[in-house]
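As promised in the previous annual report, we have extended the structural survey to additional targets. Below is the entry for V-type proton ATPase subunit.
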Amino acid sequence: MSVWIPLVAVTAFWLLVGAGGPLLVPSGPNRGIIQTMIVLTAVCCHMFWIIVYLHQLNPLIGPQIPVKTILWIHERWGDAKGELVSK
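The corresponding structure token record, generated without further manual editing, is:
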């Protein structure tokens, strides 16, 4: 549930910038170019944010621990059955 809150909030913000920003551009010879730049900026910023955000939810590669470290942890901590190891 908490994943949807930032997803909806940031999407609404960039939708507001992309849809409302071009309406605020004053008339002039470059109005169409400025409107296009505002829309493209909003789309690119939203795409960059959503790709990074969603990638953090499900990383492709987890932490890689060397075998020597795993054996050392097993030797020091025991077999993780909830018992305290005092050495």
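The radius of gyration is 25 Å. The longest helix spans residues 31-57. These points will be discussed at the next consortium meeting with the crystallography subgroup.
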